[in-house]
Amino acid sequence: MNFELNDTQRQLQDSVRRLLADHCSFDKRRAIAASADGRSAELWSRLAELGVTGLRVPEAHGGFGGRLEDLLPVLQACGAALVTEPVLASAVLGATALACAADAATAARLLPGVADGSRIVAWAHDEPGAHHAECWVETRAEARAGGWVLAGTKSTVLHGALAAQFVVSARVAGAPGDRGGRALFVVDAGAAGLRRRDFRLVDDTPASELQLEGVAAMPLGDPHDGAHATRAIETTLAAGTAAACADMLGAAEEAFRLSMDYLNVRQQFGRLIGANQALRHRAADMLVSLEMARSMAMAAAVAADRPGDEDSAADLARAKLVVGKHARLVCQHGVQCHGGIGMTEEYAVGHCLRRVHVLDHLFGDASAQAQRLAALAALA
Questions:
Q1: Average of pLDDT values for 151-173?
Q2: Which CATH class is domain 7-118?
Q3: Of 27, 135, 158, 234, which one has the fewest beta carbons inside 10 Å?
């Protein structure tokens, strides 16, 4: 695939890289991850100043109306720096869900804050019983006293502790695995009946589990228009999948860079370990895998920018499978090249592997993507 950054994308990527080099070096990143919030308000503000938080927000609401292709270089840079800011949580998932599903009044109320970074809107879709099933929603929505209330559990809500609002998927009809019968709702973080359990993922990303017990919610669009909700959910998941691929690519690129630097400075028995043929072969394998991941991350961004296309779902599943497999291989080889130091808290290459592990499981791991490809092939 011939994919070259245009001047605007290149300038933004360079600006983000410089910002992260100054404010999110590995030592600073460790301090940020160890803080109570697990993120830096100053870094988030600076990312917002560069326009990162508004890339997916329509221009009418203060954003740039960008495509996933525009986010690809930014997310690569964030992946390489192992950023723990809510870029994926709010700037991609939250912004995409609101832009796709919200009516004009709700969009005007919420999206400007998402665009300037002052409002975090988290995506609450995954559930404990889903096991990567795309359509699985057990959370129920019920019309009551002229409004709607939700009951259920949402797992792995990225940056839930920072969110002012949640975009929550719930079922108004049908069985948990049905494609239809779903709707999207906005829930305020302080709503009565909402309980939140906060934790950290293995790569230090903050996440939450939400327990909803009769929580008041505002529907995004007509709750009984299942086609509208399905389009919004699938578009949001596609954007998240492509973003995860780009982030994994960035982490793999950093693991490769660290490994090559180490092979070219570490000496053993009077010679550079990079002169050993076995390690040279491993480095070549890493480079091949890195190029595979790069090509498929680009393919994922292109596919996510054409929702509804008959081939986009297969292209996304294929890309997520391949990027996850090869990014993991690059990071695992990187740890092996470093030996024991590679798995210590004080060295970055092991954290790159943790990042890839988390992102590989978001939106469906390799097995789930293979099952989706098989199902799509059966329908063809």
A1: 97
A2: mainly alpha
A3: 27
